[in-house]
Amino acid sequence: MRFSQSTVFAILPALVVARNQGQQFARQHDLNARQNPATGSTTTASVPVGTSASSVSGTAAATPTLATTFTFKLDATNPTAVPLSVINAAQPSSVTKPLDSTAVPGTIPTFIPNAPPLPNAALLNPANYPVLDKVPPVDSPEVKGWIDEVTATGIVIPSFDPTQPGGCPNNTAAVADTSRCWWTCGGCTRSTDVTQCPAPLNWGLTYDDGPAPYTSNLLSYLDQTNLKSTFFVVGSRVISFPATLQTQFLGQHHIAVHTWSHPSLTTLTNEQIIAELGWSKKVIKDVLGITPNLMRPPFGDIDDRVRAISMAMGLTPVMWTRISPLATFDTDDFNIHGGITSVQQVLQNWENILGNATTMSNGFIVLEHDLFEQSVEVATGYILPDALAHNPPFTIKPVIECLNKNMADAYIETNDNSTNPPALSAAVSAGVVTVTSAPASASNTSKSSAVSGQFNGAGLAYMATVIAGLAVGALLSLPF
Ligand SMILES: *[C@@H]1O[C@H](CO)[C@@H](O)[C@H](O)[C@H]1NC(C)=O
Ligand SMILES: *[C@@H]1O[C@H](CO)[C@@H](O)[C@H](O)[C@H]1NC(C)=O
Ligand SMILES: *[C@@H]1O[C@H](CO)[C@@H](O)[C@H](O)[C@H]1NC(C)=O
Ligand SMILES: *[C@@H]1O[C@H](CO)[C@@H](O)[C@H](O)[C@H]1NC(C)=O
Ligand SMILES: [Zn+2]
Prior knowledge:
Blueprint: H1 5-26, H2 31-35, H3 141-152, H4 172-176, E1 202-204, E2 206-208, H5 215-224, E3 230-233, H6 235-240, H7 242-250, E4 254-257, H8 270-288, E5 294-295, H9 304-312, E6 316-317, E7 322-324, E8 327-328, H10 343-357, E9 364-365, H11 373-388, E10 395-397, H12 399-402, H13 423-429, H14 457-468, H15 472-476
Parallel strand pairs: 1-9, 1-10, 2-3, 3-4, 5-6
Antiparallel strand pairs: 7-8
Bound molecules: 2-acetamido-2-deoxy-beta-D-glucopyranose (NAG) (4 copies) and zinc ion.
Transmembrane segments: 459-478
Enzyme class: hydrolase
Membrane topology: Lipid-anchor; GPI-anchor
């Protein structure tokens, strides 16, 4: 049994509301736009003509409450692009493309050495998973097992409390406590966070929040242009669209974790964070046979508590590039669907990203989404054609490959642990987290939490693996 598409669409509005609340605080600089939502239908701009060499400029005649001038100019657009005047919150849903290919159960992925055969997605039974789009309960046998596994690593989870809903303005003490390294309020990152690609003009392409009805349209364009992307997938959407995820994977795109229900992770207890990440890892493994080792926190909402739990679960965080409070590489494409931003504003954001990206001494990662029709249309009609025509040319790759690693290194079971140390050992050796052999009291967690740093026999076995992955120098500095 599968959830029908209409079930998914019934769930999406709740997700959108939750997300917009999160984004209220995630991007304070965009406050003005948020207080004055666009109607979308009142903006106009030149329509692309049928040639890939055409250029489109922003000439929006906006409502008084919208940003009124746009200066973007695209080097190329897709001849079949949906006109900008059509891409807005009010547009009717267009027909989705069927998947170009449907995965056959048992297929062995040839592009990842030693990958297991593809499971039969038709056997996925949603009744065996938590309710979609809700933080999963923490008392299930599965979650209890994952809590035990995290405990067994001996990781020290910082003891500070979860943040309150309402973001930076509602969390003045947490914001002031810079030891939390809370990205949402100040952009703090740790050395193990992936925030860019090392080489200049390299773009680590990412799409979040799918798989979804229009993911197939995006995949079709990526196939035509021979592009491969990273997809940060939501576990609840994997339940709804397992066949799409299999096609993405067999199409040699890179699959990574984006939680089960898309919450602001810093607001959750340790156990809830474990449940969100654990169920996402599990459903992806059940559908693909392998488990991602990269994750992106929804809204970029991460702090050292979330980092520690992610690393303990074998997941390295991937953000998007942020060079200043006013220059985060976020297209805001997600908000066209809700009428909060216009497609012209998204293309203006894209041009600002390009302007910054081409002057940087390293590559970059941009936030985009495949959940809604509008963001897929702006990607396939405008952003990607423009990027492909860019001079100097960009090298566009999935995140794992822009980091100079192989696709096999993107999954826990196939990762070459000697050249690409697993998340926890990398974090220990970088000094981002510590593990301890001391009893529970040495690594207290938040008051609401039962997860402690208690060390046990399973932990010893795990630590042997951790140590095996460490450089000698780092080993000497281990705290035990
Ligand atoms: C701020 O936090 C309190 C709990 O401390 C919560 O009740 C309230 O809803 C939050 N405000 C917003 C705007 O989310
Ligand atoms: C970099 O981004 C900022 C913020 O979007 C923008 O104001 C600025 O013009 C960009 N820089 C370049 C060189 O385009
Ligand atoms: C890397 O370690 C994981 C356990 O963390 C293991 O499952 C995997 O098989 C190892 N990779 C290889 C190539 O042996
Ligand atoms: C952990 O908590 C116990 C009591 O709750 C306290 O005595 C101990 O000092 C704490 N340890 C740390 C490292 O905070
Ligand atoms: Zn997301």
